[in-house]
Design goal:
The protein has a single domain, classed as Nucleotidyltransferase, domain 5. The protein contains 4 helices and 5 strands, in the order βββαβααβα. A hairpin with a 2-residue loop joins strand 2 and strand 3. It is globular, with a radius of gyration of 15 Å. The N and C termini lie far apart (42 Å).
């Protein structure tokens, strides 16, 4: 069995915009089972849900790059289709169109998209969407951590 690093992320807000939080959990899967190797969370007083979803992935990839012993190959799980589709399909069109959407409007959260793009360089990542609040243990853990971060504001 190949060792697989799974990165679960989540972000959310109380109100949109409003106070928001993000979280990630990195799980290493080996023939011996699953082991949490890193996790993190944070919050902002005034933000949006989409910004927190992006910040969760950005924070996870920063941690991955900083961890010398972890593989730079991972499966990233997000319950945000905005993040999953944005990084796998839309970003190439946005860049081609000078960071404009198909209806010629500026791409929202462009600052975070640019950060995320830089962080993905030299990493081998597979991006998977997972349905939120559907019983996935690691996604649920990220959701709880996100709410803990908001509550701690």
């Amino acid at each position: 069995m190949e060792t697989v690093l799974s990165v679960y992320t989540d972000g959310g807000c109380l109100g949109n915009p409003g106070p928001g939080g993000w979280a990630y959990v990195m799980v290493l899967r080996t023939f011996q089972g699953e082991k949490v190797v890193a996790e993190g969370k944070g919050a902002e007083k005034d933000t949006t849900n989409n910004r927190m979803e992006l910040q969760a992935v950005i924070s996870a990839l920063r941690a991955l790059r900083a961890a010398k012993e972890l593989p730079w190959k991972a499966v990233v799980f997000t319950d945000s289709q905005y993040v999953q589709k944005g990084i796998t399909a839309w970003i190439q069109l946005w860049k081609k169109n000078n960071w404009r959407t198909s209806d010629k409007q500026p791409v929202k959260n462009q600052d975070l998209w640019k950060r995320l793009e830089v962080l993905t360089e030299d990493l081998t990542l597979q991006w998977e969407w997972v349905k939120g609040h559907a019983g996935n243990n690691w996604n649920e853990r990220c959701d709880r951590m996100t709410h803990e971060a908001i509550t701690a504001l």
